[in-house]
Amino acid sequence: MSPKSKLRAPPPPAETLDTRSSSSSDDGEELVMAVRHPEGEESDAEEEDGLLRSEIDEREERQTWVLEHSVGPHRRNGRITIRGFSLPKPLLYVLCLLPTLIILNLIFSHSISSSPRHPTLSNGTHAYHPTTLLISLDGFRPSYFSSHADLLPNLHALASHPAGLRAESMQPVFPSLTFPNHWALMTGLYPEEHGIIANDFWDPDFQGGKGGQFVYTDESKSWDGEWWKGEPVWSVVEKMGRKAAVSMWPGPPVTSEGVSASYFNLAPSPKVDQILQWLDLPLSHRPEFIASYFPEIDQAGHAHGPDSEQVEDALGSLDGMVGDLVRGLEGRNLTGVVDVVIVSDHGMTRTSNDRLVFLDDILGEGMKDIEHKDVGIRFNPSLPPSTLSAHITTLQNAAAQSNGTFGVYTRQNNIFPDMQAIFFTRGPLARALRESRVGLVEGGESGVPVLQSFKNLEIFSLCTKLLGLRDVEPGHNGTEGFWERWLGLDVSTSIEDRE
Questions:
Q1: Pick from 4, 218, 284, 288: most CB atoms within 10 A?
Q2: Which tens digit of pLDDT belongs to each residue from 6-60?
Q3: From CA 450, how far away is CA 486, in angstroms rounded?
Q4: Among all residues, which ones are annotated catalytic?
Q5: Under a CB-based contact definition with an 8 Å cutoff, are residues 304 and 139 in contact?
Q6: Which domains does the chain have, with CATH numbers?
Q7: Element of type H or E holding 238
Q8: Which of left, alpha, beta for 455 (phi over 0: left; psi -120 to 50: alpha)?
Q9: ω before 270 within 30° of 0 (cis)?
Q10: What is the pTM of this model?
């Protein structure tokens, strides 16, 4: 009978448990073995013990320690022997620690790889993260690009550059007003979702039903974060531990969630110098998203008309700003690192004072019965019905004296050609869009391709994509996969293929 078969044979019914000891040739500490044998059969027990000793010695010679009745590794004098190898305890502890560190490193690496992409680039002398500049030229309508081409040499150069591009137009949300559209650009939400439905309005549900009046020119009546629903791009950036900068962009300094941009500037000028100063900051302090607002065209258009000399002056001045910005980026070798996105909130069209109705001329003393005059006609609900009826009759009679009807107001003023907005871009995004050619059309006489028109709600997801934050962006009203289809690839991939 072989040693193994003899060791594994079932024991007789009556048995006792005897303990024997064995030690290896190179070990002074005994290894206690439990060997079962029947009572009164000492010779068989001794034979089993001898066979077991022989097998252990044979396997030690092969440096393979395998026991049929294993009781663990052998220890002696601060050393541990495993499978025939004797190791100091400190060394064994180090060897055990290494796999633990490797596992932790793999876990940590996985968490990094599954987080939004955050590559580090270089302009040749300094490290940079991909950066997006979002610039708004309030009131700039697309037709100015051709009708005032002589005043816009820098924008024309940008649009025709191999890493530059413009769109035919960009459709604003309704109503085509400054504050609703700037917050739509920043959140990707319609006004009914983001809460800013006009430049001035009354909300009876504000602050739990107390009611409140939003007045865009009054900080005390417009900066409360409760007005501003949705999450702006700069809040998404800040939540990820990165930095954002806001320069006069319509919106609150702090969101309803308590998030603020690292840099918040209300100084009217000089904005280009401020942008370049932010880009010159050390990497750990440098904003990766910068939003800057320029109101000059809109101000001139409202005061003097969209075709006035004052608007022409504003166009020329802002085109010079674009030139200064591009030259500043080129001088810093940042044209392959920074994506410049230039938009407007809406366009402008002509009107006539002859068609204006002045309520105070019609209502006279009745004006005192109107609440919140600057947000539209809202008669005080506490008025007696007879007084309210008299005011309405007066307004109806005034309309009848002109043409017998009230004026017609459309809720689609955001589709009129003059009310469209602009879109220009310079940087890796533009180069990728040009190479894709999916959304491009012929650019008329110039032959320079342009992007098809699209809604301004797509700007939000464009910014989050350029910044590598699509995986953490909040819900929005933009089109799912819009930029992926137009690019035919991942924008974040194209970022690495810099100019």
A1: 288
A2: 444 444 444 444 444 444 444 434 333 443 444 444 445 455 555 555 555 554 4
A3: 12
A4: 178
A5: no
A6: 3-72 (no CATH), 131-349+416-495 (3.40.720.10), 353-402 (no CATH)
A7: helix 233-239
A8: beta
A9: yes
A10: 0.71
